[in-house]
Amino acid sequence: MPNTLGNLSPREFVRLPAEAVIGAAVLLTLPRRPRRALAAFSGAALGALTALNILDIGYNEYLGRHFNVILDWELLDDAQAYLEDSLGATTTTLLTIGVILLAALLIALVALATVHIADLLARHRPAASQGALIAGTVWITCTALGLQVAGVPIAADHTAGVIKVHARRAMDTLRDESAFARDAKSDTFGNTPPDQLVPDLRGKDVIFTFIESYGRSALEDPEIAPGVTSTLDTSTKALANAGFHARSGWLTSATFGGSSWLGHSTTLSGLWIDNQQRYRTVMASDHLSLTEAFRKTGDWDTVGVMPGVQKGWPEQKYYGLDKVYNAFRLGYRGPKFSWSTMPDQYALEAFQRQVHGKKRDRPLMAEIILTSSHQPWAPIPKMVDWDDLGDGSVFRAIQKAGTKPSDIISDSTRSKREYGKSIAYSVTSLTQWLQRYGTDDTVLVFLGDHQPISRVSGAKASRDVPVSIVAKDPEVLDKIADWHWTDGLQPAPKAPVWKMSSFRDRFLTAYGSTPHAKKD
């Protein structure tokens, strides 16, 4: 069975597998008990490998990568939580039970079928032996001559190849753990004294904001881009009228389609964090995060606004956040919008009311994770008058009248359309907040965490996301003049593209930080 959706076609199933020929030859040489035991084991393994191929297809479609047998099992919990928010708890429970039963049946039935075939071979040993010899000869001939059907080689060794790839990936993962742990101990700014960190931003309120799934496809895909680029143009002009100016570029994300926390941590740590093991390693380390750098100076209050966090969040310590406002601390009493616990407009107003708008002795550094553009992009909130937000109850009618996730979750065209609307909503919420509440000392850095799933962004989409820095003070943008970013909120197609992991060091350097390396 292929492990990518694009190869899932009838022609793949008319190939002659070498493993079947070898397996038949081996089974014919064994007495009854060992033969049946080996057949049962081989069948169960083939069933399990088929289930693994299905996981590969799912991960390729949603995350743009193959399933990792070492690291990715725990992500299935996140998938289940996502389905609960999108389809409801009852439907998700039934689906989960169904998937488990199907996997068990697949393994059991393939094992029974293989035992049955082994018994048939044994009952017709002379003919079976001749058949295996002929099949082996055909396989070798097809390999030697490169014979194909509809562009697909007749001779196949796909099963052995898949096992080899997964084994190599597992070994690479285990080796990567120790190598990355050493890398995380080295840090260009690890020993920088507090008074030499971001001195050129002293007195500024610096706000780092991640927009969920805000990827390059939102600006360049012809089915998505018109609404998003129009919103960016309108927002750029509105900000300019309010005295704000922006510059924008591209970052290549460490993740694709999901696992947003990998994008967040890569941006803020300056390390390439593309899997869960690397994430755990960094969160347990003292490697300097960009947000921790502000706390370390002692000159900023540091807060996190995390409407998507609904349980304990030990990462708060690594990011150096004095206080975190999760889904339950923002005062929201309105409805959820699928996975998103609250509309971005409300989260930003709550941030203003509870944090940014209050008098403080020191400037503020905030990390904000917006969630309204999280898949499945249904229902999507709509902008309301900022003075009418209240406790969020105003969104009940909007949520009730919105599109149901089940109506678009498997429809690529509608998903693209709704995805574009969600990005436009998130950008509008953020830029209107800045127009309304920003001051001469506000510096806003906002970016996407990753591209949307491949069903929306496309099978060959890049991993690039837009990033913008917005400020009233012209000196803030003058500091990054040598970055050659595009003026405004929309980066030009040929604007610089950097790895997301390079952003921390570039930002710290641009705003006057002095490197003092800490070595392994």
From TrEMBL:
In the UniProt record, does the keyword Lipoprotein occur?
Answer: no
| Record field: transmembrane | 12-30, 37-55, 94-121, 133-156
Segments forming a coiled coil: none
Q: Which InterPro entries match?
A: Alkaline_phosphatase_core_sf
Keyword check for Cell membrane: no
Q: Which UniProt keywords apply?
A: Membrane, Transferase, Transmembrane, Transmembrane helix
Query: What GO MF annotations does this protein's record show?
Result: transferase activity
The name this protein carries in UniProt is: CDP-alcohol phosphatidyltransferase
